[in-house]
Amino acid sequence: MMSFWKRFSYNRGAVIGLVILTFVVAAAILAPILFPQSPWKMVQRPFLPPFTQDGLLLGTDALGRNVLAGLAHGAYVSLLVGLVSTIVALAIGVPVGAAAGYFAGRIDDALMRFTEFFQTIPSFALAIVLLAIFQPSLTFVIIAISIVSWPPVARLVRGEVLSLRTREFVEAASLSGLGNLQIITRHILPNALPPIIVLASLMVAQAILLESSLSFLGLGDPNIMSWGYMIGAARTVIRTAWWLSFLPGMAILLTVLALNLIGEGLNDALNPRLTRKSE
């Protein structure tokens, strides 16, 4: 564990990303405590600029709602969508990729053709179609993002399993009488875990961007405040009230940047074969 943190902390960008993400997570957790009122509630006159009113640090939007409260509650929505959709995508992609890589042959061909079917359709377009068919609620937003996110997981896991299935420890486990499921879950997947963890951190960032884009287009949950909704609602007044688009946009930028930096740090920490240049 100490060696992991040492390798992770060697990447200064990853440490900065971890600090930024810590602030975002803290804002999401403390949002109901710091802003107990609904972020939809009107608290002052509209278009109040930042730093001009006590208690309203970042001003108000076009309907007089607290912008800072919206950002805090939006952090919770973005992180929730990113984490849950990534977990669901991993739950789909890991078994598919593991089965394809381990059994190979016709099973591999069938599962990869199934995976390619989802990859032939642009992920954003497919998410829009799914939300246009179903109700644009938070649950369906998570489902739509999960459906378009699992194919890269399946391909990564398949490649890792293909490279591990012929190793000596796998053959020894097979000769000892272990079944295929036990070999995959106990011996192969634990050794394929590092690249999966790195990919998962990047998938969370991608899911946040996708949710923000869908909310910007009005396909998010209309009852939940999100960063994408805040940008979409302020696009008509961007010249007169630029901060209403700028602030949630910066929140998205910093969160996605932090997750990408953390992904790079995890790649360094979980792959001991990587060589580093000494300063």
Automatic annotation (TrEMBL):
The chain crosses the membrane at residues 12-35, 75-103, 124-148, 196-220, 241-262. PROSITE patterns: ABC_TM1. SUPFAM superfamilies: MetI-like. Coiled coil: none annotated. It is a multi-pass membrane protein. Residues 75-263 form the ABC transmembrane type-1 domain. Its main location: membrane. Pfam families: BPD_transp_1, OppC_N. Keywords: Cell membrane, Membrane, Peptide transport, Protein transport, Transmembrane, Transmembrane helix, Transport. It is found in: Cell membrane. It comes from the Bacteria. PANTHER family: D,D-DIPEPTIDE TRANSPORT SYSTEM PERMEASE PROTEIN DDPC-RELATED (PTHR43386:SF1), OLIGOPEPTIDE TRANSPORT SYSTEM PERMEASE PROTEIN APPC (PTHR43386). Belongs to the binding-protein-dependent transport system permease family. This is Oligopeptide transport system permease protein OppC. It comes from Sulfitobacter dubius.
